[in-house]
Design a protein that fits this description.
Blueprint: H1 2-15, E1 26-34, E2 43-46, E3 51-56, E4 61-66, E5 72-76, E6 82-88, E7 93-98, E8 103-108, E9 114-119, E10 127-130, E11 135-141, E12 150-156, E13 161-168, E14 176-178, E15 184-189, E16 194-199, E17 204-210, E18 215-223, E19 228-235, E20 237-243, E21 249-254, E22 263-265, E23 270-275, E24 281-289, E25 292-300, E26 307-311, E27 316-321, E28 329-336
Antiparallel strand pairs: 1-28, 2-3, 3-4, 4-5, 6-7, 7-8, 8-9, 10-11, 11-12, 12-13, 14-15, 15-16, 16-17, 18-19, 19-20, 20-21, 22-23, 23-24, 24-25, 26-27, 27-28
């Protein structure tokens, strides 16, 4: 009897996988090699047109890929230092933030021809879009402009006109996140190691929350369901979770080195944190509750792979690998497991 029970227990143990044996949250399905590119910046996605845009700030160019086949379609040039690409299928326009040119270049949606320019100041880079107002918020100025403050310019995408500039007391601003149920805009005020809370109606900073878990806070995301902000610091490499009701840090976790992007996967309650330091890796963090988080996987990538894009509609995750030594630049394509 005891022997039979032992055999049954052993069989059940083999049938139930351990945590280490569970399906990996990210599975590499394709590697796209792109000769001639040295360093990737940010990704733009056009679901209607089945296109993936990736800016290459050093060449400078915007590379276009087919979302269905991963085939490289075209290289768009005529930029000085492109950082962000935002397609607007309904407007038949593509916005490209060209930092060195101090402007947004507006391209025709189909032909890619330059049809308009929206003037900004030097070093225009981070963006966030508010689909309710159809306003685009763009960070510009600061360190490259040799000013102690940065601007967040507000652009009406329906008219293609800049409406206003908001001045923030920091010479470096990074990622932003929109609150859809209210009027707040959260900003990583990296130059003063804080999060700025902007009232979008007043167009002014109404609160400033210090980041104490680390320095060099770059990417930022917001989970409106739990009122939690997610940011990553580089010194040291931490994922920091902040209560957006009071600005208090609730938890911090060690993650991959030198992070430049951060994605929150609301469907699977996960965060993907790509780090380009060392050999490169994506830290996958599970959200177990509003204030409970666990590092569940470290997915190896390649050195310098610090920018990425999660596309929830396709259940895909794209990681940009820069050229290094004999290795050409690549885009790594992952399936996201349920």
């Amino acid at each position: 009897m005891k022997k039979s029970l032992f055999i049954l227990v052993a069989a059940l143990a083999c049938a139930v996988p351990s945590i280490a044996q569970e399906k990996a949250p990210l599975r590499l399905t394709d590697t796209i090699t792109v000769p001639g590119v040295r360093k990737w910046d940010h990704f733009g996605v056009d679901l209607k047109g089945n296109r993936l845009f990736v800016s290459s700030e050093e060449e400078p160019a915007v590379e276009v890929f087919d979302l269905r086949t991963n085939k490289h379609l075209q290289s768009l040039t005529e930029f000085k230092e492109p950082h962000n690409v935002l397609p607007f299928p309904d407007l038949k326009k593509i916005y490209v933030v060209d930092g060195e040119a101090s402007e947004i270049k507006v391209l025709d949606y189909d032909s890619y021809k330059l049809i308009d320019r929206i003037a900004l100041t030097i070093d225009a880079d981070p963006i966030v879009y508010d689909p309710a107002s159809k306003y685009l918020y763009v960070v510009n100025g600061g360190r490259e402009a040799k000013t102690p403050t940065c601007l967040i310019s507000i652009v009406d995408t329906t008219t293609g006109k800049k409406l206003a500039d908001m001045k923030l007391e920091s010479n470096r601003l990074e990622s932003m996140a929109i609150e859809k149920s209210g009027q707040r805009l959260f900003v990583n005020m990296t130059g003063i190691n804080s999060i700025g809370v902007v009232d979008r109606e007043k167009r002014a900073v109404v609160q400033t929350w210090p980041v104490t878990a680390g320095k060099d806070n770059v990417p930022l995301q917001y989970d409106e369901a739990t009122h939690r902000l997610f940011l990553a610091t580089r010194k040291p490499s931490k994922l920091v979770v902040v209560n957006a009701d009071n600005g208090k840090e609730v938890v911090s976790l060690d993650v991959a080195d030198y992070v430049d992007d951060l994605a929150y996967d609301a469907a699977h309650h996960r965060l993907y944190v790509p780090g380009g330091g060392g050999t490169g890796a994506v830290s996958v963090v599970a959200q177990r509750g509003a204030d409970k988080y666990e590092l569940v996987a470290t997915v190896p990538t390649k050195p310098g792979a610090k920018t990425a894009r999660y596309v929830p509609e396709l259940n895909k995750y794209y990681v940009g690998v820069p050229a290094k030594d004999a290795q050409p630049a690549q885009i790594l394509v992952y399936d996201v497991a349920p």
